[in-house]
Every structure is written in structure tokens, then in C-alpha cells.
Amino acid sequence: MAKDKQGGIPRVDLPADARLDTLAVREGLPPSPWGENSEALYLTSSFVHPDAATAARRFANEEEAFVYSRFSNPTVMMMERRLAALEGTEACIATSSGMSAIMLLVMGLLKAGDHVVCSRSVFGSTIKLLQGEFGKFGVQTTFVSQTDLAEWKNALQPNTKLLFAETPTNPLTEVCDVAALAEIAHGHGALLAVDNCFASPALQQPAKMGADFIIHSGTKYLDGQGRVIAGAICGPAKFIDEVFTPVMRSVGMSLSPFNAWVVLKGMETLSVRMKAQTASAARLAEWLEAHPGVERVYYPGLKSHPQHELAMRQQGGQGGAVVSFIVKGGARAAEDGGRSAAFHVIDQTRICSITANLGDTKTTITHPASTSHGRLTEPQRQAAGITQGLIRVAVGLEDIEDIKADLARGLNSL
Ligand SMILES: *Cc1c(COP(=O)(O)O)cnc(C)c1O
């Protein structure tokens, strides 16, 4: 969006102290002259200017106005303003996917010769992007333990510009200390980005703990119903306007207005969905932990979780809606590491959707080692703790007793 030089684009008239649940429904742009109550979907590639001189001013960033939907569109802006309000950051820039948000982050902040420190437990495609794609262009990444702060510190180099974390992680729900990582980054003159996809701003606001940038896959809980691919970076207005928007203008990893609208409306129910799905996930995690067919459960809300206390502090006392567990492989596990036992449990479900997506109202079940983390080498998978017996369940809004019965079918017949 062009900078606010002349009056600019108006804001919604909201009290300055409006709370999160109010912002989730109300933040955006004022309605058009027609007074629509539900936000308008502006499907237009370009915007018309009253005269040539005005067009020139707008293209030169001297007057704030919508110009071209590769980098400015009212529906997309409504989504950006709403997400920034939820994350408690000054600004936000929407992208075509969560992955392109990370691409925009790195393209905007780094150049060849720069160095990144990243948790080795982050989303599989994030590891591929940093190591593979950006490695090709001379940006080096060191991968470290999610939870060992000393490893993060020891990995710092004079050219380290960015620390990248994700918490809780997919699929093992490992939690890192955001405030401590912010301190390490800032003490070194580097910046901290946190992928907040799993907790969402309904549970956790990393900017309040010192993170500079928040990465989102809007595909997950923000949309909340598994309909569109979307992403975003939230952060200080100076970076969004002066660093990321120019890259967006040249590169065009833009979010379509339609997908922005879907995410915008999804955010209105984010808080109630997260509360309900988290409550169900907590019940499922407790049940799984007591089940004889289960070797281990990964869920931040359980006392057995290694970072339980930190998670409760960072996530408003909530564990989130994703539960992972290792199936007891029995005799078969010796041959395939538990893979066939995990496949058995997955294949016995009749309600859960077998899909790698998450953050949907429909409960999804996935085998990370052969799907989301399938592109990693076996040593990379081992390092990330993604074993063959591991199953991830992203709990939706169905009756949790039905989901338990769905999993019991396979677990009781291993
Ligand atoms: C899904 C996901 C992404 C990537 O988002 P897309 O919208 O699929 O591109 C990034 N980080 C995490 C933690 C995710 O779960």
C-alpha cells in the first residue's frame, strides 16, 4: 500500500482500548458508501484515478490510494489490518501462502552472505526453503535445537541477521521460549521471526514477548475451515511499508482478494473455534495418554510435556488443538519402525480426514514421516524426532467422543 502522505485511507472508528474478540470482528476498513455490514469483496485488478496527475502522485507513493491488486486491494487490506490488530503489531502484509510469507521475509531482510539460525523442528517446507532455495542464493542457515537456548547462542555468527522459530512446532508441539530468543537476537543486532500458525493470536501473541515478525499460514486456523491457501507477515509498519511492500510490488506473491475475504471472515470466529478445539484436544490428549496402545503423547497442555509450564505461560494456559502420539508398534515395529501400526490406526478411522492440513473444523489425521516431512532425508527426520510410529491429530469441532471412538477402533486392534 502506498504510504499515507495525504489524508490516506480511513480507519474503522473503534475505541482505542477495544479488546481482541471485538477487533477480530470489527477491524478492517469502513464500509463503502453503500453501507454493507459484511465486508465487501473487491474483485478488481486495478483502480481508476480521477486524472493523470493524481495517478502520477499515487504511483510515486505521494498519495495513499489503491493502485493495483498485486500490492494494494481493499479486501486484502481489511484482512491485513484485522490480523495486525489480533497480533498486536503495527502492520501486516498478506501473501499467497504461508511459505511465500517466509520467502518474502527472507527476500526482504537478507542478502547473499547473510546467516539465519533456525530451529530444526520447524515445518518441513520451511527447512527446505531456507536450506535448499535460499542456500542456492548464498543465504546460509544453521539448524539448532528448538528448546536448547545455548545452541541458539552458540550458532550466532557475525553475519547472523535473523533467528527463525515456530512454537509450538508441527507435529511434536515443542515449545521455545520466545522472550529468551528475542533477547538473544536483539543482543546480537539480529531480528526474531516467529511462525505463530499453531497457537494463532487467539492463544499467543509473540510480538508482546519481543518477536519482531510474526509469520502466518492463513491456510490453518485463521481461515479455520480448510478452504484457501493464504499467508502473512505481521510486524512494524516501517518494515512492512519500506522493506516488504517493495518486494511484494516486484515479486507479486500476492494474496487474491477472494482468499483474503475468506480469511477475513474466518478470523471473526477464530477465538471461539480455538477455545472449543483446544478444549477437545486436551480431552483427547488425556485419553490417549491413558490408552495401552499409545507409547507417548505430545501435547503442551499435558503435565508430561517437557515445556508444559513455559507453554502454559506463553499460550494463555491453553495447549492448542494439535495432539501427536506414537503408536505402540508391537512386533511389527522391529521391521518398519512402527509405520504399519500407525497406518493401521489411521486407516481404521471413519470420521477423521486423512490429510496433512490442519486448523480445520474437521478433525484431520496424518502420518508426518510420509507426508509433511516426507521430503526430508531419514537422518533429518530422526533429528527432528519424526518417527515412523508418529500420528498427528488436529482436532476439529466434532463431538470429541466420536473422535475418540474413531481412534479407539485402530488402537484397540493393533
Ligand atoms: C502449513 C504451515 C506453513 C506453510 O503454510 P502454507 O499456507 O501451506 O504455505 C508454515 N508453517 C507452519 C507451521 C505450517 O503449519
UniProtKB/TrEMBL annotation:
Catalyzes the formation of L-homocysteine from O-succinyl-L-homoserine (OSHS) and hydrogen sulfide. The keyword Transferase applies. Its cofactor is pyridoxal 5'-phosphate. This is O-succinylhomoserine sulfhydrylase. PANTHER family: CYSTATHIONINE GAMMA-LYASE, TRANS-SULFURATION ENZYME FAMILY MEMBER. Belongs to the trans-sulfuration enzymes family. MetZ subfamily. InterPro entries: Cys/Met-Metab_PyrdxlP-dep_enz, Cys_met_metab_PP, O-succ-hSer_sulfhydrylase, PyrdxlP-dep_Trfase, PyrdxlP-dep_Trfase_major, PyrdxlP-dep_Trfase_small. NCBIfam families: O_suc_HS_sulf, PRK08133.1. PROSITE patterns: CYS_MET_METAB_PP. It comes from the Bacteria.
